[in-house]
Amino acid sequence: AGDVAQLLDEFTPEGVIGQHEAVLSDLTAALEQLLKTPPKSKPSPFSWAHVTGQTRAQLWQDLAAWIDQHNTRFGQADSALHLTACWYRHPVVVEELTALMEAWRTAYLGHQAPTTDAIYYLQTFFHPTVHRIHTAAWGLKNCTGGHREPTLYPSPNTFDADAYDRHVASDLATHPDPPPQARTPEGDEPK
Known about the structure:
Elements: H1 2-10, H2 13-36, H3 53-75, H4 91-108, H5 117-135, H6 161-174
Helix pairs in contact: 4-5
């Protein structure tokens, strides 16, 4: 009889509220702990600046397969959508195509119900990115008759620390902190 009474107490409004309070307390403590130690940023497996070894080899394979699929589907229909065979020799093109491949995966993979992700991908990412790749100096615009090295800046664009320091000093001189407010004898801010 005592066990039944104890079970009944757990299902009274007070008992249920107590259970909820305990769960909320545990969740609050867990959240506070998570906020104390934010997660360490881990580079994306699609960041060419960070991938190495087998992960990098797999990314090259995935990208080449995706571009082959792209050229089969789109490149044969319109030469403006075809990616020339030297795409891999253009570092910025590789970055753009990697990002485009990941956007494609997000739009086309893993959905069980119809979404607007595919049309969003095509209109927002696909067409603008392919256009950029075909028209930018760093892209494929000069490679229709064969590979041409991407157009580079005529001279190295090196950081000039002295010029930077002069610029910052000039900027700070024209944008100084406001003067401090005068205080009244009582120490209050003036009104």
